[in-house]
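Help!! Second protein's tokens look totally different from the first
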Amino acid sequence: MPRKSPVVFPQEQRLLSELGERLRLARKRRKLSNAVVGQRAGVSRTTVYKVEAGDPGATLGAYVRVLAVLGLEGDLNLLAADDRIGRKLQDLALEPSPDTRRRKVNPPPARNREGSA
């Protein structure tokens, strides 16, 4: 039974296609064929075609192997390296809210054993 293709939104598909095109250009600059890249990466020539086409069905591992063959695997360290949104959310959670700054917490009155204050 064939696997279902993942749902990919147009913007994400555009990103994958652009990545594939950059990988194709990098391969051509190195004067390597799809067959050679596939052999060195340990994937089929068809998988290299899929990676260069930005096929969302190609595994992340296939993309990584092709990057490694082209000497570009270090670029993976740049992915999500600067999580500006996450840091901002974290900073907001660390700041006390305006309500807690204004409110003074008073301890409850001490009660004796009979229950009267």
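Here's the second one for comparison:
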Amino acid sequence: MTWDAALDIAALVLILAGALLCLTAAIGLLRFRDVPSRLHAATKPQVLGLVLICLAIALSLRSWPVVAFLIPIVLIQLATAPLSAHMIGRQAYRNGTIDRSHLFADELADSQRTPPAAGG
């Protein structure tokens, strides 16, 4: 087996794994009932799936300009997915759509009881 064939097989496996992770993320968004579970499905497998697909593209094309193009894509995804999940989760908490009995720690409850100007 040549080096090019091995890289092509590795790229194929990475594409399939990334596509499978993206598919499970989409299914999780549709099937999960509560907001924290949906946020987990929207961020973790989706980001890993995108990273695997970008890695497969880099292996398949074997070009440094392509790698230079893919690195910002991955970094932006790694930066924006947790931020958007945090904002969605916080808004769901404020709207009351999260079942607070299932939360292990509830730091926002303390901040809502104490007024911001109270100094506590």
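Reply: Different proteins will give different token patterns, so don't panic. The CA atoms of residues 16 and 53 lie 8 Å apart.
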